[in-house]
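fyi for ur records
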Amino acid sequence: DCLVLCDTNGGSLPDEIAQAVTRVRQSLPYADLGIHCHNDCDLAVANSLAAVSRGAVQVQGTINGIGERCGNTDLISVIANLALKLDHEVLQPGSLAKLTEASRYVYEVANMNFRANQPFVGSSAFAHKGGMHAHAVNKHTKSYEHVDPSLVGNERRILVSELSGQSSILAKTTKYAIANDKAMMAKILGQVQDLENEGYEFEAAEASFDLLVKKALGIYRPKFERLSYRVNVETDAAGRPVTEATVKVRVGDAVQHTVSEGDGPVNALDGALRKALGTYYPSLGGMQLVDYKVRVVNNRAGTAARVRVVIESRDKQDVWGTVGVSENIIEASWLALADSIEYKLFKDEGV
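which gave:
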């Protein structure tokens, strides 16, 4: 049905692919041609589009480019480029807006972390850092965005960082309708800058920033109150480390005291906290931690240095990051973990 040309070792360039497809079409003018590229030169998508431009009617690949060695053609990028840049009909009407959802679903099934910088569907694909960028995007989106993110089911993100100005705060707080409250925006920006001086960073911790805004606006109502926690690490008879966490929290008028073992302190704390909150908030069962990063903030202090912990979490719909800073790595982890769970609960409420 279709003669598929294969760049099996992934070493061809777009011009070579175009010439090859042209030669085969000239020799076999009535054959339907396809293209199958590998990504060893990071050109699988470009090569596939070059083949289509010379008459190929089938593109083979995988969702997210998953494949051996450097992967195969990423069908996500191929679909988006063919539909949005070249006006081809490649999907059923309305399906293109589900591209981000499809990409993340495959990552979840394959138990792989999302690729933040993946074109079109990555969490950084439409992310903007710095006051000038944010200001420009607010004025004219095409200055920094080549397509409307909603066309592929993604969304714009304004990163709050040391480069932030009021334009960034304005863009990040649109849903709170405080554009005309200059004093509030200045207050939020001041808090961000104060926290950054303590070692916080909000670029990869938008969920923590959202909670900060709620607190500044006076609309934050904690879902639970920490009373105490304890983490114990010891070795068993075989010399293997065993970690146990005990958590005591108040939910409403009730006090929950739970314990959990884990692969490490964060895993144990997470397990104990979920036990304490699961009865009240069953939706936490659909949330999981997917990444955990630790950075030393002031390395000149040696082992007494502050550490910054960033946790990335996800459910079936979203990915979010939270941050905690402390001289104690367990406390920094707790702060990031608590923010992550609270953000999930606010999000599920539509708040």
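Residues 82 and 88 are 5 Å apart (CA to CA). thats all i got for now
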